[in-house]
TrEMBL record:
Signal sequence, start to end: 1-21
Species of origin: Pseudomicrostroma glucosiphilum
Keyword Signal attached: yes
Keyword list, A-Z: Signal
Protein name: Apple domain-containing protein
Length: 321
């Protein structure tokens, strides 16, 4: 692993010591893992539309490649994002109609309009008409988000140079509407196309008019069967160095039910409590962390707001009944 030195004091000192597990705290190891994971996704050029929304699962692609924390932290959207409360989203079980969407970028900003979003909690996408006005297309895309459980963000864009859109899909439209279960940052507008989908020597595909809308009017996730909600959502978590720490696992969504199943199936019924939270790097969601404990905890144990450059959001504790 290679880390950006400037912004990453703890990780560097851990690595410099040779990272003996015995003298490295569980919190430090969490920070290292969060900093080196990359779970950003979006619809691939070859993905079929109207698929079942992705379900929460254990994140498998924790990459150990070079990262640049400084880039993550200097992202530009903080002013737009900071006005909303992190605790209120990335939740499941959304039943209410979500009508209030905030424009993160409207598709005309040259800094972002030429790239589609790649972010955590990607759900699914569909093709919408490219012969309507922007306003009608936006309404169709947001109505699609309203109709999909867990959706809080929609990315609407045109993808030019994709044979599936041009010739195969029945919509005959190059306008995609991709849905996510969490609020992204503008630094995650990273997919510029660049694939020669019509074959070698063909022009590469590219993105136009990329716009992102998100809502924070969502309700919280259901309490998993067999558990009681103990605290949350909070911007603090139980320290992994607290007594009774068993294990941490990264999830692809902030999903208490998946964390509960890991607790229930943990060796010899030793897991009696879990804390599931969103790990942020700067203003960008890095991953979702499920932490199991063999000792019961209360809200007063949830005192950890950050570990160096990683901060905690949407933290919920559940006690096994
Ligand atoms: C994460 O992966 C995406 C998609 O492969 C890539 O565009 C992005 O640059 C990566 N981010 C980091 C911080 O490595
Ligand atoms: C990352 O992991 C998720 C969940 O296992 C999977 O759906 C996705 O395809 C993976 N992405 C990459 C780029 O490997
Ligand atoms: C709409 O998308 C189709 C399929 O990619 C394309 O052939 C057509 O030129 C597009 N029309 C407009 C108005 O952009």
């Amino acid at each position: 692993m290679k880390f950006s030195i400037a912004a990453f004091g703890i990780a560097i000192s851990v690595l410099a010591c040779g990272a003996h597990a015995a003298d490295t705290s569980a919190n430090d190891l969490l920070l290292l893992a969060v900093a080196s994971t990359n779970q950003t996704m979006g619809p691939s050029a070859w993905e079929w539309p109207n698929q079942e929304p992705a379900k929460a699962e254990i994140a498998s692609n924790t990459s150990a490649s070079t990262i640049d924390i400084a880039t993550v932290q200097s992202e530009v959207s903080s002013s737009k994002r900071s006005s909303i409360s992190r605790q209120t989203y990335n939740l499941g079980n959304i039943v209410a109609k979500r009508t209030d969407y905030t424009v993160l970028t409207d598709g005309s900003d040259p800094l972002y309009s030429n790239a589609a979003l790649q972010a955590t909690s990607y759900l699914t996408y569909k093709v919408i008409s490219n012969t309507t006005t922007y306003a009608v297309a936006k309404a169709a895309c947001l109505a699609y988000c309203d109709s999909v459980k867990k959706c809080v963000t929609a990315n609407m864009y045109n993808e030019i140079g994709n044979p599936l859109l041009d010739h195969v899909f029945s919509e005959k439209s190059n306008r995609k509407c991709a849905l996510y279960g969490d609020v992204p940052s503008l630094s995650q507008m990273t997919n510029k196309g660049g694939q020669q989908l019509y074959g070698n020597n063909s022009p590469a595909n590219y993105i136009e008019n990329s716009a992102v809308f998100f809502t924070s009017t969502v309700s919280g996730p259901a309490t998993p069967a067999g558990y009681s909600a103990t605290f949350g959502p909070l911007t603090t978590a139980v320290s992994l160095d607290a007594p009774g720490y068993l294990k941490k696992t990264f999830l692809t969504q902030n999903d208490p039910a998946t964390c509960a199943s890991l607790c229930t199936s943990y060796t010899s019924n030793t897991c009696v409590f879990f804390d599931v939270f969103t790990a942020m790097m700067g203003d960008t969601v890095a991953t979702y962390v499920c932490v199991l404990y063999s000792a019961k905890k209360t809200a007063s144990d949830a005192t950890m707001a950050s570990i160096s450059s990683m901060s905690v959001a949407a933290s919920r504790g559940y006690t096994r009944n």
